[in-house]
Design goal:
With 449 residues, the chain is an alpha/beta fold. The protein is built from 15 helices and 23 strands. GO terms for molecular function: ATP binding; UDP-N-acetylmuramate-L-alanyl-gamma-D-glutamyl-meso-2,6-diaminoheptanedioate ligase activity.
Length: 449
């Protein structure tokens, strides 16, 4: 079958393409922006990519068009599909029908940490010999690919609350019917499709409604929004993590790189890994709880975490030039920015830390999170914000109240000049964006040479 995917370079759709190819389909796709890491992964899989959405790419007609949620009415390819009556489906629906049906699905949902936690969980199962399938919205470095079918009934999926397609406004995760569900955390996000936090809580409750009574729901005790979701009705056993939870961590190092794991008060072992930050300790506890549900004892799960490598673009060290270390990070919400910088600060001590931040997510562009931005960067010594001409709100005015020395730039060149003016040997520079940021990482490394 020839499947054409519109919006193929999104992390979800690109992973879907990998699975469709593995199932034996002829897969092609197109996107407005074809950029790494997804474009390189797809080309390595032999998947033909087209830049742009010209209707000509759909002639001769494919057997099925999978339409990504980034596309809407008015897009020339979408209009062609509808006018010609071509068969089409959303990505989550295709995944549910052709990959997840009949499998033990382990879903990882939440505002933050989905990609990292689903990568951890897939790796812990792999390390335990369970050869799971997975679909992850990023490229886990333990696997070097974002999706695979796997050889067993177990399938780990990053379960996103974003909508499924222009014709299906339900959250993606409603399609997945997990048996094991991690609910990491829940804050207001995706201001382009949700009016408020209660609207997102309702979608999370739709997910909870689909989990069988023989399944398991895992969530931290510290998230009031998740508590409200569970109180709407839960027909599934629950395990909790964190403060007063059944799964707890006892920190042995302030940066979270070493900690003991306790389950119901009993020591299970010690995690010593390359990750930092309290958020990753929380991700690890949820991972161990989910892995135990499918038969991986905690000690074996901990052994897997000890050799876990992070996900590309999650505090990924991309270069070191004249003693200046550059990191690529995906953080695009004030909470994620704060926890990521806090983890790095605890690791590097008093070394200079420069954050370069692009407010690129739809919620950021709408200004939904702007009030949280000035305080989100307090662990940095210097912050460079990128304000493109089309941002639509006053970023400079918003961050003027930040206690950290701040510069707002409107071009990559001025960002590079600003970093060069302040960085010195021993400085750590974190570049934060949920997009390609115009190749800033490579350009900055070259400029520092």
């Amino acid at each position: 079958m020839h499947i054409h995917i519109l919006g193929i370079c999104g992390t979800f759709m690109g992973s879907l393409a990998v699975l469709a190819k593995e199932l034996g389909h002829h897969v092609t796709g197109s996107d407005a922006n074809v950029y790494p890491p997804m474009s390189t992964q797809l080309q390595a899989q032999g998947i033909e990519l087209t830049q742009g959405y010209e209707p000509s790419q759909l002639d001769p007609a494919p057997d099925l068009v999978v339409i990504g949620n980034a596309l809407s009415r008015g897009n020339p390819a979408v209009e062609y599909v509808l006018n010609k009556g071509l068969p089409y489906v959303s990505g989550p629906q295709w995944l549910a029908d052709h990959v997840l049906q009949g499998r033990w699905v382990l879903a990882v949902a939440g505002t933050h940490g989905k990609t990292t936690t689903s990568s951890m969980l897939a790796w812990v199962l792999e390390h335990a010999g369970m050869a799971p399938g997975f679909l992850i919205g990023g490229v886990p470095q333990n696997f070097a690919v974002s999706a695979r079918l796997g050889d067993t009934p177990f399938f780990v999926v990053e379960a996103d609350e974003y909508d499924s397609a222009f014709f299906d406004k339900r959250s993606k995760f409603v399609h997945y019917r997990p048996r094991t569900a991690i609910l990491n955390n829940l804050e207001f996000d995706h201001a382009d499709i949700f009016p408020d936090l209660p609207a997102i809580e309702r979608q999370f409750h739709h997910l909870v409604r689909t989990i069988p009574s023989e399944g398991l729901v895992i969530h931290p005790t510290t998230e009031p929004a998740l508590q409200r979701v569970i109180e709407m009705g839960c027909w599934t056993p629950v395990q909790t993590t964190g403060a007063n939870g059944q799964w707890q961590a006892r920190l042995l190092s302030e940066d979270g790189s070493r900690f003991e794991v306790l389950f119901e008060g009993t020591l299970q072992g010690t995690v010593e890994w390359d990750m930092t930050g309290q958020h990753n300790v929380a991700n690890a506890l949820a991972t161990l709880a989910a892995a135990r549900h499918v038969g991986v004892v905690a000690s074996l799960g901990i052994a897997g975490l000890n050799v876990f490598k992070s996900v590309k673009r999650r505090m990924e060290k991309v270069a070191e030039v004249h003693g200046i270390t550059l990191y690529d990070d995906f953080a695009h919400h004030p909470t994620a920015i704060a926890t990521t910088l806090d983890g790095l600060r605890k690791r590097i001590g008093d070394a200079q830390l420069i954050a370069v931040i692009e407010p690129r997510s739809n919620s950021m562009k709408l200004g939904a999170h702007r009030d949280g931005l000035p305080q989100s960067v307090i662990q940095a010594d210097h912050v460079v914000w990128y304000a493109p001409a089309n941002l639509g709100w006053d970023l400079a005015g918003t961050v003027a109240s930040s206690p950290v020395p701040t510069q707002v730039c409107d071009s990559l060149e001025s960002i590079i000049d600003e970093v060069k003016a302040h960085a010195r040997p021993g400085t750590h520079v974190v570049i934060m964006s949920n997009g390609g940021f115009g190749g800033l990482h490579v350009k900055l490394a070259e400029a520092l040479q």
